[in-house]
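Predict the 3D structure for this chain.
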Amino acid sequence: MLMQGRLNICRTSFAALLASLAVGCMEFSDMAEAIDDMRVIARIGVVAHPEIGSSGAEARLSKALSYFRARKADAIVIVGDLAKDGYLNQYRTLSRTWDKVFADPVKGIDPNPPRRICILGPHDREKFRDSFAGELGGTLFDEGEFDVKGFRFRVQNARPSAEEKGGSAVPVLFADGKPALTDELCFYPRDGAAVNIGSLSGVVVKPGYEPVSKASSASQGLFLSAYSGKVTVSRLDFTQKAPIDRDEASRIKAKKMPYAEKVANDWVVQLDANCAASPLSDKVPRFWDDTRLVVTRGTENGDVVYKVTWPPVLAKFTGERAFSYVVEAVLNADESGKGAVVKRAYVLSPNFHLSEDRDTSPVFCRFYASEFPAGAAIRFVVSPVSASGVTGPRLVSEPIS
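Done. Predicted structure below.
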């Protein structure tokens, strides 16, 4: 009887979709999205590092919650650090931010709000008291395994250890650092299904890379759609007010839906016995054939400065996006760039953490003449590197002396 009831509901819903399409109320893309939604078992929004108490934290969390509400999330997981300083009033603010989205008297109280799951982070544990738990509302955990409408997953703060690789029978969500979700290595490990949640409170550039000022303003998270045999993981950035594509912007406005932008293609986790993830891409990032390095000379504090500039390598143009670039100053190099490396730098584009459509600004790196031997002939060499670690063919500048 239960199965027959579900079939009848599906038939009725499908008939309504066909009717909407017939009268011109729904586009084919909307219909495909609606049919796909009918197959979802559970919808889960996930964010980490809200750090309530820091500048703009409430607004960032509110936008993410509003998006998850519009997507009809069955549960929302908020992973520490929940509060910037661990003060009681900051946890109260987090709870009020939730209530403004799901229980605002003007908007109307949500009759079926999503399950609220809060996970304490390292900073929370330093000052957290048991008496604070009641202020947060929902369910509070250090970490653990959860069931949402039959879909099981695990949440933890630390990245799975070597012993845990492939050992989990369910997907693992973890909040380790503040990486950009454009980094495919956030899907870890390769022989299991563990996914880094990212961060609502900015991206922290990996050690060794040149600083990126815009990364600190990023606000990112995940939306999981669980099906019977797989789960799709959408990587989202909540900082954009509207999509670049006008047609998409019109659809979002018509639906009166908060906007979140996908920063890359969805990850897909197959829910087989090993919870195995797909392999890393081996595609090679490449510059366009006519791309040239531009080297300009200036001065700073009495020293000569060389600024090396190039366009970002994007998948929509060349097949694979570059996540980073290796830039080398090479002494006595030939036209292929071979010679003695004087200095090497690791560079990210200004919008490496956003979608390709936002990553259009030129990439650059600066070198000081005082770093080179006096009177030496230098060429600059730039090599694009994919998020999977694959290095592409390099560009070589004209010699600079």
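DSSP finds eight helices and 19 strands in the chain.
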